[in-house]
Every structure is written in C-alpha cells, then in structure tokens.
Design goal:
Helices cover about 80% and strands about 0% of the residues. It contains eleven helices and no strands.
Length: about 210
C-alpha cells in the first residue's frame, strides 16, 4: 500500500490542502466564474474538466520529471508565454458581449484541451503542484505516491472548481443588464491581470 494511503493523518491533510487550494480564487476559478456567467454550466463543463485533467498531468510531470531542473530556461519561456496568454484571455473576457446576444453566442468558452494546456502557464497551478509533491509525497514508494497524489488532486479539484461555474451561472439573470455585465467582465479581466504578479515577479524555484 502506498505510504500516502497508509497514513490517515497525511491523507487528511493533503485532501484539505487540495480542497482549499482548488476552491480559492485564482486564474482558473476567475475564468470559470466568467464562463458560467457568459456561457452557462453545460457549455463550461469541458473547461472545468480540462482544468482537473490538465492539472493531474502537471502534478505527475512535476513529481516524476526533472525537465525544469535539467533545463531551467524552459521555465522562463513558459513564464512569459503564460503572461502573454493570460493577457489575451483577460482581453477576451473584458470584451465579451451581453448574455444571449449574437456577439456573445458567437464566442466560444475555453475548451477541454485549451484549459488543460493552460495549467502549464498558470502560476497558481505551479505553486499547487510543487507544494503537493514537496510537502505531501512520502519518499517510500515515491512513484506510486505521486500517482496517488495526482489522482486525488483531480478528484478533489473538479467539484471544487465546478462551484465557481455554478456560481457564475447563478449570476446570469442578475447580469442581463449590459452595463453590469460589462463591469463584471472587466473586473474578471483585471483579476486575471493581477494574477500575473507571481508569474513575473516572484523568484523561480527552478532558476
């Protein structure tokens, strides 16, 4: 049995960490909230699933791979690519049209693969993945424990981020007024831009 599952205290602590880090605000949840408002729950499901699966793959890569230690410049490339992509997503959210109009229906929510790929340029996701591996992964049976950690994180993450989609969907009726919707989308875009701070200005663990 993996040491992770054999220790009830460690397992409980990790599940709590996974829940708190998944449900608290960050780029993923900001975008899911906006997606729930602009597209509803059903159209946002692939986005939410992409986050959970993409993050699971990231945890596996961080735990089992040494790519960033072997080639630190790769992390720098991802850093600035991530910054550019976040600015692009912020612009898309800020310019979303009113709910139910032709301009808003012509736009598409972020899909499964886009959301999965986004985890690699998401600063909060990196902090979560590195924290999970360095703090909650026992050395005994390390490879198996990494797989367990990644799978558990995905199971906890999906319903946690789903809460933000449902909250956004619940706000749809309140944001039928185009002015209020525009204000909401601009606020979500600003939050995404603010989330760039750790990506650009915090010292990299791989440098």
């Amino acid at each position: 049995m993996p040491a992770m599952l054999a220790s009830a205290d460690l397992l409980t602590a990790f599940v709590l960490f996974a829940f708190v880090s998944s449900i608290t605000p960050g780029p993923n949840n900001t975008m899911l909230l906006a997606s729930g408002v602009n597209f509803g729950v059903r159209r946002s499901i692939p986005h939410a699933m992409g986050i959970s699966v993409g993050f699971m793959v990231m945890v596996l890569a961080v735990g089992l791979g040494e790519v960033f230690k072997a080639w630190p410049p790769l992390y720098t490339v991802l850093r600035y690519t991530g910054a550019a992509y976040l600015l692009y997503l912020a612009w898309k959210i800020a310019t979303s049209g009113p709910v139910g109009t032709a301009s808003s229906s012509a736009r598409k929510p972020l899909g499964f693969w886009g959301a999965a790929a986004f985890q690699w340029v998401n600063p909060k996701a990196w902090v979560m993945a590195v924290g999970a591996i360095t703090t909650y992964t026992p050395a005994q049976g390390y490879v198996t424990n990494v797989i367990v950690i990644a799978a558990l994180f995905a199971l906890v993450n999906l319903p946690s981020v789903g809460v933000w989609v449902m909250f956004g969907s619940a706000l749809r009726n309140l944001l039928q007024n185009p002015r209020w919707l525009m204000l909401f989308n601009v606020l979500m875009a600003l939050l995404l831009v603010i989330s760039l701070y750790p990506l650009l200005f915090v010292e990299s663990a791989f440098s």
